[in-house]
Amino acid sequence: MAAETPVAVVKREGPHERLLLILVASAVLAALDLSVKMTLPTPEWAFHQRSPEWAILSALLLVGTCALSLVPSRAVALAAGVTAGGVLGNLASALWDGNRVPNPLVFGDEMNFVAFNLADVVFSVGNLVLMATLITVTIRNRDRLIPPRRLARALYQRTRS
Q1: Sequence ranges of the domains in the chain
Q2: pLDDT (tens digit, 9 = 90+) per residue, 76-133?
Q3: Which of 12, 29, 59, 91 has its CA 20 to 30 A from that of 126?
Q4: Which of 26, 48, 25 is nearest to 37 (CA)?
């Protein structure tokens, strides 16, 4: 009787696993931001007032980052989660504090200062990494992109000559 050789089962991750990665990363980073905002005191002049439109745009941005789970890349999902963590941290603190976002990280004084919070840093870094990962995935999969239409090709040829 021959011994059976184990068969390696390779499970490809799908959008659900990538969505979970986005949600977990964003929740952890937003919680970290909120704990910093609750721990460090914020001078009254270092709050940024936010509008209801900003809150709606932030919510739409969160939906957009979740939609990036459809891109077959864990790196894109992680970067989307980092970006969403920054958005979620500022959105949660604005909703919690009457549309005002505290900025406890202050350098300078009331006249000459830079005031920001961890969510601002997380969003900025996440956005940069997200753009880099999306560019990388696009270049690696350029053979799968929809070819340009005839008019677009003609315009491209015209600009090249």
Answers
A1: 15-160
A2: 999 999 999 999 999 999 999 999 999 999 888 777 888 899 999 999 999 999 999 9
A3: 12
A4: 48
List the Cα angle 12/14/20 in 5-degree steps.
Answer: 125
* Secondary structure string (H, E, C) spanning 12-73: CCCHHHHHHHHHHHHHHHHHHHHHHHHHCCCCHHHEEECCHHHHHHHHHHHHHHHHHHHCCC
What gap in Å lies between CA 120 and CA 87, rounded to an integer? 8
92-125 burial by CB neighbour count: b if 16+ within 10 A, else e? bbbeeeebebbbbbbeeeeeeeebbbbbbebbee
pLDDT at 127: 97
Q: Residue 83 CA to chain centroid, in angstroms?
A: 2
SS3 label, residue 160: helix
Strand partners, 101: 48
Nearest CA to 48 out of 61, 58, 60, 62 is that of: 58
CA dihedral 13, 17, 19, 25 (to 10 degrees): -120
| Three-class secondary structure of residue 156 per DSSP | helix
66: tokens are 């979740």
- Tens digits of residue pLDDT in 45-66: 889 999 999 999 999 999 999 9
